[in-house]
Amino acid sequence: xxxxxxxxxxxxxxxxxxxxxxxxxxxxxxxxxxxxxxxxxxxxxxxxxxxxxxxxxxxxxxxxxxxxxxxxxxxxxxxxxxxxxxxxxxxxxxxxxxxxxxxxxxxxxxxxxxxxxxxxxxxxxxxxxxxxxxxxxxxxxxxxxxxxxxxxxxxxxxxxxxxxxxxxxxxxxxxxxxxxxxxxxxxxxxxxxxxxxxxxxxxxxxxxxxxxxxxxxxxxxxxxxxxxxxxxxxxxxxxxxxxxxxxxxxxxxxxxxxxxxxxxxxxxxxxxxxxxxxxxxxxxxxxxxxxxxxxxxxxxxxxxxxxxxxxxxxxxxxxxxxxxxxxxxxxxxxxxxxxxxxxxxxxxxxxxxxxxxxxxxxxxxxxxxxxxxxxxxxxxxxxx
Length: 384
Known about the structure:
By secondary structure, the chain is an alpha+beta fold. Helices cover 27% and strands 29% of the residues.
């Protein structure tokens, strides 16, 4: 029996038999944590996981959603980088050592872009709350926006109650969902993603370092976010790019800052050592031109709406076989983007991934006389 896993628009075909019978992959590292996941960025393939859908306190990994929403507002122009954001009394950090803060003075204003850096680099609870109030009027109202965005991204194990990650019984997420969120940040907030790799940020004459220790020890790591509360333990969502391959890792519930860094490093080393990602076909490339009946054009160009990639054991890439499946007969009208077939990647005789083929262009219906002529031609072609 087969089952299907669709991630990032690519459907990986999963069977009860070993997926890559020709290659034996060593078991992933044994990790002491509450949950983890390792995902390939381009294909969406899950390389390793444990308790990845269990609902857990995400601590400041929550702030990835806060920053993502801010980034999307900036990209759409509804928020400007230099817009002044008020540090209200309800958002203000009083300087205790119980929470991380950006230390914007009470009742003062900071530019939205500085506040964003305060969220990402300094993990400021004050900056997170101030931005939430600025965008939604209150933190609870912003949490509703966060949950709407989580639903849009397909985060099914998540419910946000605040913008910071402070402990709340109604505030939870999962390693799988946080990997999905990290992917969205890298893909959809690419203009602002470099902030996640900045090692320090100074505001109000207070310099604070990024808590992601891997940024200082591994030049291939370029994000994303740390988190810690007593309930959550020490957590880290990170991304590493080595050559053309990018991996995303989430570890939750480790027992120290050192442990979350070590475990993430172990996952990355295992993943990069044993797997590689192959680009099957890029988006927009013409992959076929099947016949169209009753249209102003006799053919339609077909291809992919997004890049198709597949993650394989190292050394197996050259063994991939690619096939197209198209409907035997296409009738106009055809809309641009309409699904009209699929492309299948197979390895060792087993399909490992498939993706829909779409019309890269529209084909309008022809006039009455052309349609009548096509009808006659198709009638006789079916006879013979």
